[in-house]
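Bumping my old thread because nobody answered last time. Still need a sequence for this structure:
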């Protein structure tokens, strides 16, 4: 179990306090919310269809065009890690391409990632969000690797640095593990988690499908999460409209002052030479949103209706 947990541990990201002592308030979700009227009417906090062929980040290095909606942070192991493509696309004219290379791994956490991160919510208990995105996995660049864990999407907790709390495994992630696409979530009610020790016994792993079912096609995901350490949490995952996880009245999340942030891309500590993954239509919806507000395909009328 310890070996698997190590593969999910995140590195330092969005430090709560900067060297001058001021909070990094500009990486909070509320500071970078998309204020477009049409987006707000849909109870959406954020949307990026990658049509501008560029990125804007508050933190992190990116050498491409500085266009598009504002993201919180980039973590790219090198210039190769992100690009924009005309094919394949889920909708519109562009999608984003992530590339992870084993040759660029070193002791830094960023070297393990080709990932983009959105802002942090301001609380844990009762925080509720809807996430939608579409992912394309090419068979030739993403073979099954039974030995290695790979994160595609995660909600990562923000430790209480003023209490000298360490980073822990993501409270929720969609991952590759031993040839399967899986959902993984956990919780810890203790104020200062002793790293991952408390979390091990609270892990819940749900097998969704063999990884091969994602090859060479766009797969639409909708994730609905409500955080709670009082047994009132919720986790629902739809994949191409099918409800593949439905966890109600659960504990999910960590006892932190600040809530988590979402991430998309490729995150792994080891593997074969190269992996490639495409994303399109990333949505973040607030607590008043729903499946149809965040499911990919909304703009070109190709949304897949939800079924149980």
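Sorry it took so long. Here it is:
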């Amino acid at each position: 179990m310890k070996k698997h947990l190590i593969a999910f541990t995140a590195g330092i990201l969005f430090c709560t306090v900067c060297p001058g002592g001021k909070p990094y308030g500009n990486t909070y979700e509320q500071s970078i919310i998309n204020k477009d009227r049409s987006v707000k009417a849909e109870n959406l906090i954020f949307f990026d269809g990658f049509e501008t062929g560029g990125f804007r980040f508050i933190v992190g290095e990116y050498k491409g065009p500085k266009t598009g909606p504002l993201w919180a942070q980039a973590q790219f192991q090198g210039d190769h890690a992100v690009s924009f493509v005309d094919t394949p696309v889920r909708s519109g004219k562009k999608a984003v391409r992530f590339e992870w290379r084993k040759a660029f791994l070193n002791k830094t956490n960023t070297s393990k990632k080709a990932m983009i991160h959105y802002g942090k919510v301001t609380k844990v208990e009762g925080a509720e969000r809807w996430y939608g995105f579409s992912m394309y996995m090419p068979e030739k660049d993403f073979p099954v690797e039974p030995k290695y864990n790979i994160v595609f999407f995660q909600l990562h907790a923000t430790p209480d640095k003023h209490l000298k709390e360490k980073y822990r495994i993501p409270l929720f992630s969609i991952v590759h593990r031993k040839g399967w696409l899986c959902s993984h979530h956990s919780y810890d009610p203790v104020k200062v988690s002793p790293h991952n020790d408390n979390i091990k016994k609270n892990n819940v792993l749900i097998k969704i499908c063999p990884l091969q079912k994602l090859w060479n096609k766009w797969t639409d995901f909708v994730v609905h999460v409500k955080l709670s350490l009082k047994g009132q949490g919720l986790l629902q995952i739809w994949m191409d409209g099918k409800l593949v996880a439905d966890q109600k009245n659960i504990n999910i999340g960590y006892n932190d002052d600040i809530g988590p942030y979402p991430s998309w891309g490729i995150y792994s500590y080891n593997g074969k030479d190269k992996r490639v993954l495409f994303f399109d239509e990333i949505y973040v919806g607030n607590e008043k949103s729903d499946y149809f507000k965040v499911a990919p395909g909304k703009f070109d009328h190709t949304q897949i209706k939800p079924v149980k």
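The chain has a mean pLDDT of 90. Let me know if any region looks off to you.
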